[in-house]
Specification:
12 strands; about 220 residues; twelve-stranded antiparallel β-sheet; mainly beta
């Protein structure tokens, strides 16, 4: 007896100008979760977040499997479906593989993302590799560092590597009202190192970007 669950999400976007209102409604998520033997399976249109969104953070049409406990392996195949704010206009076949492990006090991750036909006109392909290490530096304070390297199929404007460094203090938990956290990040990412960055907007329009960010999170109530 295998238990499967279905999740769906509809998004409605309202755009107002001086003359009229433009409204669109579309499916953003529609996927199944279940077990096949020792594999955790997800299939449909789900949200894909690679390397804390520094590579990709939006919907993905495909199938994903996860396996392992101490060393967790994740692999997926399908079609990248970028948001309207993404720096890429289209994407077809895509595969990704991620490994997560705890090595002593270090939390380590590695990701490989391969996307075909990123741009309909040029037929550009891009391969992105990324590694991350996180370790505690003091009580409730953790340092994370990510290095990214891309191998596009042809020359593009901008750099093909980059890094992100973050300091995390505490952190809000949805199950614990009143919990909170602070995050400070510095980004230096070349254009080829991300396809749909978690920071929508200028990051997706420029030929790479540098800068810093400060973030705070707070649990107002349970699950809020």
């Amino acid at each position: 007896n295998q238990d499967w669950t279905y999740t769906g999400m509809i998004e409605n976007t309202q755009n107002f100008d001086n003359e009229a209102e433009d409204s669109t409604t579309k499916f953003q998520r529609a996927y199944l979760n279940g077990k096949l033997g020792g594999l955790a399976v997800q299939a449909g249109r789900y949200n894909l977040n690679l390397m804390d969104g520094n590579i990709y953070d939006t919907r993905f049409d495909g199938v994903q499997v996860k396996y392992g406990k101490d060393v967790k392996l994740t692999a997926g195949f399908g079609k990248a479906t970028p948001s309207t704010a993404a720096r890429i206009s289209s994407a077809d076949e895509a595969i990704y593989v991620q490994a997560d492990a705890k090595l002593g006090v270090i939390n380590a991750s590695a990701v490989y993302f391969d996307v075909k036909d990123i741009d309909e006109e040029k037929g550009l392909n891009d391969e992105i590799w990324a590694v991350r290490a996180g370790l505690p530096v003091a009580k409730d304070l953790k340092l994370d560092a990510v290095y990214l390297k891309a191998d596009p199929s042809e020359d593009i404007e901008g750099e093909d590597d980059g890094y992100v460094v973050a300091l995390n203090y505490k952190g809000a938990k949805a199950s614990k009202p009143g919990s909170w956290g602070l995050v400070a990040k510095y980004y230096d990412q070349g254009n080829a190192t991300y396809l749909d960055h978690t920071m929508n907007g200028y990051a997706d329009d420029m030929q790479g970007f540098k800068g810093w960010g400060l973030f705070a999170n707070y649990a107002l109530a349970k699950n809020i």
